[in-house]
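The records we work with from here on pair a chain with its fold. These numbers are not coordinates but entries in a learned vocabulary of local backbone shapes. To see the layout at work, look at the sequence and tokens printed below.
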Amino acid sequence: MLWFQREITLAPRPRGFHLITDEVTRQVPELRQIETGLAHVFILHTSASLALNENADPDVRHDLEAFFNRLVPENAPYFRHTVEGPDDMPAHIKAVLIGSALTLPIAGGRLRLGTWQGLYLCEHRDRGGPRRLVVTLTGEPAQ
């Protein structure tokens, strides 16, 4: 049984839902050493989240952003945590709703995703900056 853990940094992105599957797999070359196993991906931030969803049609990413902005609007009069700007508290709420981690299967040295699935960074701040992820891999070694 193999175990690897690596902290990676994603390039800064504007607010929105961004496909990061290729960026993550490029930064975790140990993935190719596992025949069958699991990848656990955890984001080290409270104002961004991770999701698995549609990887082909960019309208899905647009619609998700529009929905979450309507669900959790900026400048709500009941928000008290506003020191870092009007996008701060909504970012925390969106991160709680979507989640901070994903566990994905590995098969043949690759993430075993469905045909239309991709890993998303859900950036909830206007200027969130670089985002750090911890990727933990475990599984049976490739022969």
Remarks:
- The chain has one domain: 2-141.
- The beta strands are 2-10, 16-19, 34-43, 48-54, 101-107, 110-111, 117-123, 131-141.
- The helical segments are 21-27, 58-71, 88-98.
- The CA atoms of residues 41 and 135 lie 5 Å apart.
